[in-house]
Amino acid sequence: PLEMSAKKPVPFLRQVVSVTKKVHRDPRFDDLSGEYKPEIFMKTYSFLDSIKKQEKEMVQKQLKKCRNMEQKEKLQQLLNRMTQQEQAQKKQQKLRERELSLKRQQRELAKQGKKPFFLKKSEKRKLELAEKYAELKRSGKLESFLNKKRKRNAVKDKRRLPSQKNL
After folding, report:
1. pTM value?
2. Residue 35 or 62, more confident
């Protein structure tokens, strides 16, 4: 530390030794990391899918062999998480493909000289719901899905109604 005069008041924040501050980079927002393109990312890391599949099979085998209830419960939770991640990834892929097909259609219409028309979020949601309905009908699970939906809505309606005590 440097010697200072005792007759002058010491500054509130005195720099005794200059310290070089570390600059932290967040790759999500930094230009040096490049631009995120999900298609390229999926192609580059597609080998991970096969590894995940192998790991899932291994967990299933361990679950069958396991006798300890605590261990079995942990393995079951892990398996559930793996299947949920897989389903979420498939759903995201479907959504991306649907958006790409809509963009292709718009490009073709633009080439023909027509004015491009972009769907609103609500219309996209309606199309998605119609597709889900068709898929459930194909697989034969439509009736059970609608029953569950009816029950859920009935519970919601019951909650919204004033209780009998208050009347």
Report:
1. 0.64
2. 62
